[in-house]
Amino acid sequence: MSDVLGNPAIPPDASDSLAVLEKQRSTAETFGIPLAVLLEVTHRCPLQCPYCSNPVELDRAGKELTTEEWKKVLTELAEIGVLQVHFSGGEPTARKDLVELIKHASDAGLYTNLITSAVLLTRDRLSELADAGLCHVQVSFQGTEDIAADRVAGYRGAHHKKIEVAKWTRELDLPLTVNAVMHRQNLHQLADIIQMAIDLDADRLEVANVQYYGWALKNRAALMPTVAQLDETTRIVEEARERLKGTLAIDYVVPDYYALRPKKCMGGWGRQFFNISPAGKVLPCHAAESITGLDFESVRSNHSIAWIWQNSDAFNRYRGTGWMKEPCKTCEFREIDFGGCRCQAFALTGDAANTDPACALSPLHETIFKQAEREAEGETNRFLYRNFAGGTLEPDPGESGKHGA
Ligand code: SF4
Ligand code: SF4
């Protein structure tokens, strides 16, 4: 991808970059528009995962873009060169118009992926989605055992339903990705999760360790794994990758608290990724609204999506390396990891321009590493469930065995 800001062909004060592009017959590649975009079509979700990547301040249904507004977004995305859209949430199937939106995206030439918790789907509706042009399904799992997995989801019967939907997906000849979010309370099931993905005939398995912002940061003490657990996880993933070459592709996202260098979050702020929130905000990452003081433009504004991507303050604030302070500013890795995660830097230091404390060169690294180690000892296992009420603390097992939505 070319450097958007460094492209002299695009005037810095262009009022509408899309128009400029059209005039210049430029391509999405030279402009740098991401090829895949995440659409969070709603924050509504019947599940209550304590690690949910949605912001703690969830968008209510009344703020969501309408069917026509989402259709306009999809048309615009296709026009500016986006090739793939991920329908996510919240739970995207909570939107009654999902079939219509998938059909619109498909007609516009977009490859469509559905990222779903699966619990609201029926076989008929999945079949309708397939007929509308849905290309791929990604089902998230909380574990492999009904009771334990349903407890994490905060929804009784969720695991059983997910298995059903995964089977329907393959029966309808749609490619399937199993998405497993891992943490201290389910890492012991990893080998079984890999086997479950094989049994479900998945093409791909995403083993994603929890990243700690939003709801996950609130639940960090109940989710943080031990160093020994992580070493074992890495060993299992590496062994399975070798053994299952050609059968199951395994993506592995490591937790960065125990790393020496931070992840290249989102491929670098405003470089390869944007997502659109239920209310239409165009965001450099799905957690970006956790950074206060940044003003995110909306698709409801007078600006095109291409203009927002190229010119808006929120995207330009942490693009490239010019915004960096020490130690990132003069670090040899600054164009490799772009200083790590801005949301994590903000959450842990109060300033998104600081070095991500996941980096060993951050003055805070030692402190957060020690805190992670302390929390991993497991003083509390109770979850704060994600919901519109700001969270509900899991009942004390001593008081009640009940859980679920
Ligand atoms: S992480 Fe869980 S609660 Fe959050 S949107 Fe996904 S399924 Fe719903
Ligand atoms: S100091 Fe900054 S650029 Fe250097 S490794 Fe750490 S986060 Fe990356």
TrEMBL record:
Cofactor note: Binds 1 [4Fe-4S] cluster. The cluster is coordinated with 3 cysteines and an exchangeable S-adenosyl-L-methionine.
Binding-site residues, [4Fe-4S] cluster: C45, C49, C52
Domain of life: Bacteria
Enzyme class: oxidoreductase
Cross-referenced InterPro entries: 4Fe4S-binding_SPASM_dom, Aldolase_TIM, Elp3/MiaA/NifB-like_rSAM, MoaA_NifB_PqqE_Fe-S-bd_CS, PQQ_synth_PqqE_bac, PqqE-like, Radical_SAM_PqqE_MftC-like, rSAM
Ranges for domain Radical SAM core: 31-243
Pfam family, one: Radical_SAM
Originating organism: Bradyrhizobium iriomotense
PANTHER family: PQQA PEPTIDE CYCLASE, RADICAL SAM DOMAIN PROTEIN
Keyword Metal-binding applies: yes
Pathway noted in the entry: Cofactor biosynthesis; pyrroloquinoline quinone biosynthesis
Subunit and interaction comment: Interacts with PqqD. The interaction is necessary for activity of PqqE.
Role this protein plays: Catalyzes the cross-linking of a glutamate residue and a tyrosine residue in the PqqA protein as part of the biosynthesis of pyrroloquinoline quinone (PQQ).
Entry's family note: Belongs to the radical SAM superfamily. PqqE family.
This protein's name: PqqA peptide cyclase
Keyword terms of this UniProt record: 4Fe-4S, Iron, Iron-sulfur, Metal-binding, Oxidoreductase, PQQ biosynthesis, S-adenosyl-L-methionine
EC number per UniProt: 1.21.98.4
